[in-house]
Amino acid sequence: MGGIWAPRPSQGPHKLRECMPLSIILRNRLKYALTRRETVMIVMRRLVAVNHKIRTDLNFPAGFMDLVSVPKTNDYYRLLYDVKGRFVLHNLKKHPKEHNYILCKVKKVGVAKKASIGSNPFRTGKAASVPYIITTDGRTIRYPDPDIQMHDTIQYNLATKTIDKVSKFEIGNLSYVIRGKNVGRIGVISRIEKHPGAFDVVHVTEIAKKGREPHTFSTRLGNVFVIGKGTKSWISLPKGSGIRLNVFEERDARMKKENRRD
Q1: How far is residue 202's CA from residue 207's CA, in Å, rounded to a whole number?
Q2: For 111-147, how does the pLDDT look when each residue is reduced to its tens digit (9 = 90+)?
Q3: In which domain, by residue range, is 158 found?
Q4: In this structure, are 157 and 191 located in the same domain?
Q5: Cα–Cα distances in angstroms (integers) from residue 217 to residues 4, 24, 32, 182, in the given order
């Protein structure tokens, strides 16, 4: 939706241009409501959760990889991108194992001081250090695995609040492009170019389909989100599996679909 009357997302874990407010999701995408008033009633009755946390803010921002659920109807959706760069709500009805986890990209690794011991006259010694990581969805996790580095991806369990798996940002792993002109495309990292003082570039190769040669494209390192180890994805993928067709392939697919209907 566009225009001056479109609902503006509240401040939250995702950037303004990289999220979708709950009102748009419930009313325009999932068709749970017809009007804004109905959307307010659904949210205020505490029926909608984002990443297993009840949200009563009508314009709470849901972003890439977030899990939007309605527990009463047992509906679970993961917010992903299609190959056109649009948000798509991927239904997880056939994938019940995915109801309890999300993938998060690590954007910062650091060490923080605990409480200042020197401020207490009855205690002596140095303040303890606490290692932590910050993910792209605004999550801070203390005492992570020491091997986790920037740009790696973690599988975060929403039920136990722990890290189940870690996928390194390295050649050979499956990745999802979340920004830039290639947004929504999925492929295997084939090469990483280092450019000191400028943007590092990642070359991604699409997974070959039958009768079609794999295409290779490049994008900035910050635009790439690893979603699995090797060619195996940790999440179910939306329609098209992240492979962008050219105009001729789209035409042939559309004509084939129309002939099938006839």
Answers
A1: 16
A2: 998 765 555 555 555 667 899 999 999 999 999 999 9
A3: 103-167
A4: no
A5: 36, 32, 39, 8
